[in-house]
Q: What sequence folds into this?
């Protein structure tokens, strides 16, 4: 057999094996809701973004209901920078004055949301972009943030401006899109009772969305291989107790704290599993859902 024929044989077998391996997962997740949070740090290059969009289209095509919640922190930062405005974070949350809120809405609801929608549609999907304002999807209230301090008695409530938390979610518009073969793509902007817009951390929105939709899985795509221990090794599975210990010892810190807490809240409220995975790996979503490999960190209740 010539070398190229042997290679062809190998790749044919590999393709056949991968497709066969995917079958039970396709059957298991068919008609199930999967909430996928696409973090701004995972949107690093055009090829990766296209790969993500193709994965979402494929999942929908084989009968699953992917719901995308996206971030865009670095993209907001870049726009603020261009406008000569400084980004300021407290405990991973952006301090959001009125002007910043306008930029947040422009970047999340405009640029980032429409880029993802457009990519999914280029690959044959039917994505519809939403902010929390559309169809009254995300009702928000002002977040009274308790600053993280080593001494709990010294902790204080601080004002972050137009930063919100989820007060409630009305999933009617998402159900309507799902049943109509559309893919909802949601920007984390909520609306207060007074009609005021609130900037909400995208992990928080994804976690609550997964709970309200009784999702099968919550997948959080970020820029690390998953949760790492103090020696930098990947922790493939974590329970609530282990998470508390890792936060207590400072191994889990910064932006990973709200992320993992949202994942825990989701599994505690009925989502079957939550995964923190590396969005910088090509087709990370498909690898997680359709192969035996399982990538990243699995959070159990
Ligand atoms: N134990 C840990 N394992 C992995 N990442 C951690 C850990 N503790 C803190 N982090 C930080 O959390 C970051 C991910 O959170 P964040 O920057 O908010 O992501 P995203 O923008 O994707 O929501 C990682 O890039 C890393 O710097
Ligand atoms: C309150 C708050 O911090 N909101 C975030 C919303 C975007 C986000 O969460 O984006 P990533 O997932 O890419 O980090 C922000 O303004 O950056």
A:
């Amino acid at each position: 057999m010539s070398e190229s024929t042997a290679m062809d044989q190998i790749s044919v077998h590999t393709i056949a094996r991968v497709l066969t391996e995917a079958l039970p997962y396709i059957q298991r997740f068919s008609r199930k809701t999967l909430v996928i949070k696409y973090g701004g740090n995972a949107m690093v290059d055009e090829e990766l973004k296209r790969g993500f969009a193709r994965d979402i289209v494929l999942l929908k095509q084989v009968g699953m209901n992917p719901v995308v919640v996206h971030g865009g922190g670095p993209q907001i930062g870049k726009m603020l920078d261009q406008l000569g405005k400084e980004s300021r974070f407290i405990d991973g949350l952006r301090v959001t004055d009125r002007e910043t809120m306008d930029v947040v809405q422009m970047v999340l609801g405009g640029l980032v949301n429409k880029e993802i929608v457009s990519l999914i549609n280029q690959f044959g999907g039917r994505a519809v972009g939403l902010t929390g304002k559309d169809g009254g999807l995300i009702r928000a209230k002002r977040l009274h943030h308790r600053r993280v301090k080593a001494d709990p008695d010294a902790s204080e409530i601080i004002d972050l401006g137009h930063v919100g938390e989820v007060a409630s979610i009305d999933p009617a518009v998402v159900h309507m899109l799902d049943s109509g073969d559309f893919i909802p793509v949601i920007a984390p902007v909520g609306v207060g009772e007074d009609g005021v817009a609130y900037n909400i951390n995208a992990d928080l929105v994804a976690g609550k969305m997964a709970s309200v939709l009784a999702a099968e899985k919550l997948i959080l795509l970020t820029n690390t291989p998953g949760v790492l221990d103090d020696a930098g090794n990947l922790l493939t599975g974590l329970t609530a107790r282990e998470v508390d210990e890792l936060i207590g010892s400072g191994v889990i810190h910064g932006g990973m704290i709200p992320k993992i807490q949202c994942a825990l809240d989701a599994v505690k409220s009925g989502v079957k599993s939550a995964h923190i995975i590396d969005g910088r790996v090509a087709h990370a979503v498909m690898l997680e859902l359709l192969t035996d490999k399982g990538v990243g960190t699995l959070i159990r209740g």
In short: Residues 23-299 form a domain with the Carbamate kinase fold (CATH 3.40.1160.10). The mean pLDDT is 92.
